[in-house]
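Chain A, query sequence.
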Amino acid sequence: MTTRKVNRKPAAKPAAKPFDVIAAAKIIGDNIGQAKAAADVLVSATAKINEQVKAMRGAKVKIGASRRTCPNAAAVYDALPTHLNANTKANYLSAIRAAVNGKADFQFPNGSAKAKAAKGKKKGAKATGGTIMIAIGSGATDKDAAAKLRAGFNKMKAANDNLAKLAAFLIDALDDAGYADEAE
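Chain A, predicted structure.
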């Protein structure tokens, strides 16, 4: 009996699904619109809060350090939404106390671009000035473009807690389009 080598061709790889850039762009555009609307609501709410802070300053109201001994601190804390946890409520009370007792306007805790950029840098994101750039060359393949988009969305998720849900959604959209991360 002789043994003979059989030359077999490797199984053909299934054709990659073409990346639908228009669908991805529409999803991105829709979500940027939602994020912009949320940012507009935040700006409006901050302005209304600062009106009340200025009114409290005008009335010479002070907010003490302890809710147990200062009825003003207790009133502000108790007025905060009940769905917030105790630490979050304490952070908001501290920010309101600083605004009422000081001269600076109220800002949501960790709401400034500098704080978010610093927080993102701690997590390894390369964000400068709060901007994350995703550059895709005109000659890039669909896999290269998907990999660069995924990397940019991961940076966005790490750099900005407010956009983390959007970034996760966009990463899921890449996975659903057939561009799953090979590293996973």
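The chain has a mean pLDDT of 80. The radius of gyration is 25 Å.
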